Amino acid sequence: MSSEQVSKSKFHLSVENIGGIDNLSTSFEPGVTVLAGRNATNRTSLLRSIMAAHGSDDVALKGDADEGSVELTIGDETYTRTFERQGDTVISGGEPVLDDPDLADLFSFLLETNDARQAVARGDDLRDLIMRPVDVESINEQIESLQQEKRDIADELSTLSNLSDRLPQLERRRTKLEDQIEEKEDELAEKEQEVEEYDASVSERQEVESELESKLGDLRSKRRDINDVDRRIETEKQSLDALESEEEELADDTEDLPEVAGGKIDEIESEISRLRTRRQEIQSTVNELQSVIQFNEEMLSGTSSDVVDALRDADDAGGNVTDQLLGDDQVVCWTCGSEVDKSEIEGTLERLQSLREEKLEANREHREQLSELEDEKSTYERRQRERDRIERRLSEIESERETRQERIEELKSERSDLEAEIDSLEQTVDELESEEHGDLLDLHREANQLEYDLGRLRTDLEDVEDEIADIERKLDERDELEAAREDIEDELEELRTRIKRLESEAVEEFNSHMDDVLDVLEYDNLERIWIERTEKRVREGRRKVTKSVFDLHVIRTSEDGVSYEDSVAHLSESEREVTGLVFALAGYLIHDVYETVPFMVLDSLEAIDSNRISRLVDYFADYADFLVVALLEEDAQAVDSSYPRYSPA
């Protein structure tokens, strides 16, 4: 549904067994809706129901219920969330408005317990909150991929550099071979001329010479064959050398790669599973505590439906139930029926609230531990994959080495057979020799040797020329590789600076929006709240790294009109609450939350006076399609009377 369609549509909400609500069905108009009333009147439960419909898990089942649900209809679209208690946990289901509610939980659902609001008072890492919606992990993955690509190109360029150094040597070798071939061709031509001249003088002996020529031809062929076998043996040996070099490099890589201890990944997965289970247990406890706290607050304030019914019955009977239940400072305990001091129950509530905060803090710590463990698991898995790849390649090398060694043995056996055939042919040639034909045989033998030598030289020249052509072809690619490396370096630099740029832009926008919100609130002694981005060396595991830190600064104005900087720790509780709220509201604006989240909810604004609340509501009414704000009666009086009022109690 488009933002324009949402802004023109009513929304209808149906709630069952959420927080302190048994059953509720209501509709709201687009724009601002004011939930006016005292505390403990289920206003927060209504806000949490809206949040639950969007996908938030910051919601509790009613204490005495095993199932609950929320249904939100905007225009023609209906979204449903269901909740079911299973043991100590609550399982959620259904189709919410948002696939990922994290951004809304941070900057759109601004209850008292909102992380962004509480971050200032707790001194949390503001950078984590501000940058959480930014996909920094994707940028880091791109950097890692480009770094690997750059290393691959560097290896190729290093190989090309070695080839370039070899090229002059090969060219000198080519020139030398060409000279040798030319000399051998001249010698062979002279020798063939001598044979022709000799043949002309002894033509009558052609029959003997024909047999001799045949044997000499066979001898030349066998020598060419043995030369070919020698070349093939040399090729196999070179391949073996290359395999051994690769094997040594892989062995070095294995030594540099820390071995993953057996079962380490399983241990981490087990710990992750344990922490997730623990988080669910803690969240369930938090939900139960919230229900207990809310129920007791309602009972204590007299807004519980049971108390209201009792008061109504007493009025009908002409009695005064309040007088029957309460003394000056006494109240009848609704759990045991005895009279206790009201202050004791209030003290118990404070301890329960403190316990809830402790559980929330524990949950946050578990979340951080989970993140660290998942990073550690990813590192171990990456190392294990690399080790497995190396071991597979080493196994392939071993198999290939055995195959090539077998080929070498086969070629050596073939060469031995050829040597035997050559010896036999040479013996036959020797037998055909006679005193009369000795000179002729010598000439043929010399010519035969020259042909053999010339063939080897031509083969060597062909190999050298092929190698030179291959090197020149590869060197032609060097400019492209260097250009590609420069492009990667530029891209890496852009990616490395992008995160810093995003951080700087985020800080700048945050400061601008916080200025705007403070202008709306018009505090005389709170001149400015701003964030400064700095870089610090911090320990991360066993090493120190440089990380960005967002420091919050508060500029105050004294009664004499003098501006000075103060720390958050020195602010009063109400000022810290205001600072946290300003920070959260700025996050809503900088991340354009209103473009994807139709609702904004506000609660616990008691730290701000009525007139400022009114201005704040008017300001954000221009952004949110639906702005639902919970206010005390006296604060609600200051808000524009045209905004519809609603009381869930």
From TrEMBL:
* SUPFAM superfamilies in the cross-refs: P-loop containing nucleoside triphosphate hydrolases
> Bias category Acidic residues: which stretches?
181-199
What is this protein's record name?
Answer: Archaea-specific SMC-related protein
Q: Which organism is it from?
A: Haloferax chudinovii
UniProt similarity note? Belongs to the Sph1/Sph2 family.
This protein's record includes keyword Ribonucleoprotein: no
Q: Where are the transmembrane segments?
A: none
Give the record's keywords alphabetically.
Coiled coil
Region annotated Disordered, chain positions: 181-214, 360-385
Give every Rad50/SbcC-type AAA domain span: 13-216
